[in-house]
Amino acid sequence: MDELTNWLKVSLVTTLSSEKLLTAIEQQNSLDQLINANESTLKSLGFTAHQAALFKTPDNDKIEEMLKWAEEANHYVLPITDERYPSQLKGIINPPKVLFVNGDIDYLHQPQLAMVGSRSPTAVGKKIAEDFAHHLSDNGLTITSGLARGIDGASHKGALKGIAGTVAVVATGLDRVYPAEHRQLAHQICEQGALISEQPLGVAPHAGLFPLRNRIISGLSQGVLVVEAAIKSGTLITARHALEQNREVFAIPGSIHNPAVKGCHALIKQGAKLVETAEDILEDLQILVKHSSSGDTIHENPKKKTLEPDPEYKKLLSCMGYDPMDIDSISECTGFSAANIASMLLILELQGDIVASNGFYTRLGKRDKE
Q: In what helix (H) or strand (E) does residue 171 lie, and over which residues does it extend?
């Protein structure tokens, strides 16, 4: 039986750790001999009764399905022994035995930064994630995330605008996309990056698989950037994996009144690097920073046209601060009419100075140097 078929059999024994598998292969001299060992021998090698039974009675229909999948363009099955398997990932505790890849496997070997955060972020959080990912991608960092709603999706979208692409690590088989609303995004990632999973085809979304997936996101990366995470966010699992894997952890702070960033603040207290600009990350990871001629930061696009500063706009932005406000509150602070404020806010939003969400407006950057 060929080696690929053997590795696909191995992939179906999802509870078997890579460490136990590699030890067993070494003791049996080859994967082929291990596959052909009897159940008694497998148990003596530390396999559970269930694992041994799966080895001896594999789902041949599923294996045939995966063999056909692997024949398609840009579909890869990478066993941990394959030279194309990412070396960065091999060094973590319990690396995946097999990686399924849809896309360009070269992206798995590029310098990567993981970006993770809330599945229900604020409008500001989503914009920050997309802008950071775009800028970091343009400076040579492939952005790795989990294709989830919220910050993950925004990070992938931002990275696709850059030159270094993006990698999405999913918790399902690659024959399905979760969430379904990211189907088009997943297609784009396959064209400008790679979609990967350790789960064999047919595996559906399951709550227990997402924390398991997170170790791969951090394991592939040089560091993890957390954008908006509540104090009990599952995102913090990825940060913990990163620390265990000796990766850098970065966190973007926010308003002390915003519960969506309490997890970021907790990480900073525990030693994560506080990040205000993408250059903070690039410098820490010793990536060559491409400065614009004007020295603009991630929040300031040198190509955009802005209005000349005038006292009314300066007063409005000064009153807004950096916490969400509604028009009535802005009117009370500025003394301007609601109609005038609405017009000014529209212009500021088009310029990228503020972001609107559910009737509230939040300032993104200073209009002038104070």
A: none
